[in-house]
Write a structure and sequence with these properties.
about 350 residues, alpha/beta, Aspartate Aminotransferase, domain 1, Aspartate Aminotransferase, domain 2, 2 domains, seven-stranded mixed β-sheet, three-stranded antiparallel β-sheet, 11 helices, binds ligand T4K
Length: about 350
């Protein structure tokens, strides 16, 4: 038996020689950072690929969220999802705002829009939903609620490059979307991220915030900071982008393989896509009980396969950093959900082996 460990994910990487070719131009120019030509090219290439107008490349997805909050000058309560990576909440806190947790929909695993309005107070300034695992939120309903209550919307779109709503990139909804280009994401620059603001003025403001608050004449006109992406990271993004369509199609194919095979097993359920189209960048399985999950995880680990408990525990239970606010659905699902390995270079026969181990240990 092949005993090479299989992790939940592996970066999608272009061939090294193709990356090197782009890197040579960095060495020739000697420009390593400060919004150099490769960062600008990456932004243009991502816009073309996703058919969006604006993309500000930044150093990581957490900074992208912080920059979005800063650009909208928010101070107060931000209603968000507890079923997420801790970065959603730490970014809110680092910008001096308070997270208010809205429970999730048990099927989509995204913020339950029917529960948002009850959480709005006179301190609420924004809603920050998460397109979790690349599954789009109910963007139209969120937009309606936000307009009714005069709130801003920032999407944590860390997982959502490639996800669409009405055939349009989901990154173009809300006031700003913040995405991640981390090594584990569908498109990666090792570390990296992006802010997408459909509004031109907000887009220009985000560019200034990224660069210490300079305007083109190098006057300081914003309360900015350093959110810049380097040329070395941008080069990797440009190289990887060439394989984006292939990676997206590959994820979808393997996702469907898992889904079709596992659907026949009683007691398992799956994240449902109710609005728009997912990028199928994760394959989460929901068990009936945590005991079943632990049994399956143990059986997979025994044969060197390492799925991950994204997202466990529910972020509202991190009482070292937040005041506990109950969100029973998120807390319950977080205990029973396991993401199975899903990445470009994962062989289909390995997917079948994972399905086999899971089926036998269930
Ligand atoms: N919002 C949401 C909803 C997010 O999920 C995230 C990040 C953010 C915001 C913030 O975006 P960033 O600031 O990170 O850009 C990962 C990532 O660090 C994090 O980006 C991601 N979400 C989160 C869900 O997962 P871990 O704890 O899974 O990393 P690690 O090192 O355990 O990696 C998982 C597997 O991936 C490993 O078993 C092997 C493989 N791997 C990982 C790395 C880093 C590689 O093969 N190569 C690598 O370089 O955090």
């Amino acid at each position: 038996m092949n005993n090479k460990p299989i992790y939940v994910t592996m970066p999608s990487l272009a061939p090294l020689n193709e990356y090197n070719e782009i890197l040579k131009t960095v060495w020739e120019r000697g420009i390593l950072t400060h919004n150099g030509p490769l960062v600008q090219q990456l932004e243009k290439d991502i816009c073309a690929k996703l058919e969006i107008d604006n993309f500000v490349a930044v150093s990581n997805g957490t900074i992208a969220i912080q920059m979005a909050i800063k650009a909208l000058e928010l101070k107060g309560e931000i209603i968000t999802s507890p079923f997420t990576w801790v970065a959603t909440v730490s970014a809110i806190k680092w910008e001096g705002c308070s997270p208010v947790f809205c429970d999730i929909d048990a099927e989509t695993l995204n913020i339950d829009t029917t529960k948002i309005e009850a959480l709005i107070t006179d301190k609420t300034v924004a809603i920050m939903p998460v397109h979790v695992f690349g599954t789009p939120c109910n963007v139209e309903e969120i937009d309606r609620i936000a307009k009714k209550h005069n709130l801003k919307v920032i999407y944590d779109a860390a997982h959502a490059i490639g996800s669409t709503y009405n055939a349009k990139s989901v990154l173009e909804f809300g006031d700003i979307s913040a995405t991640s280009l981390h090594a584990t994401k569908l498109l990666n620059t090792a570390e990296g991220g992006g802010c997408i603001a459909p509004d031109k003025h907000l887009h220009e403001k985000l560019k200034r915030i990224r660069f210490f608050g300079h305007n083109d004449a190098k006057d300081i006109v914003e309360d900015g900071f350093n959110g810049k992406m380097t040329e070395v990271h941008a080069a990797l993004g440009i190289a990887n982008l060439k394989y984006y369509d292939e990676v997206l199609a590959d994820r979808h194919k393997k996702y469907m393989l898992y889904r079709n095979e596992l659907s026949t097993i009683p007691g398992l359920s799956f994240q449902e896509v109710k609005w728009g189209t997912s990028n199928y960048s994760y394959f989460p399985v929901i068990f009936e009980t945590e005991e079943q999950l632990l049994k399956v995880e143990k059986a997979l680990n025994a044969v060197n396969i390492f799925p991950r408990r994204y997202f466990y525990p529910s972020v509202n239970t991190y009482t070292e950093i937040v005041d506990y606010q109950p969100t029973p659905i998120s807390e319950d699902i977080a205990k029973r959900i396991l993401c199975l390995p899903l990445y470009w270079k994962l062989e289909e026969k390995e997917v079948i082996r994972i399905i086999d181990v899971l089926t036998k240990s269930e």
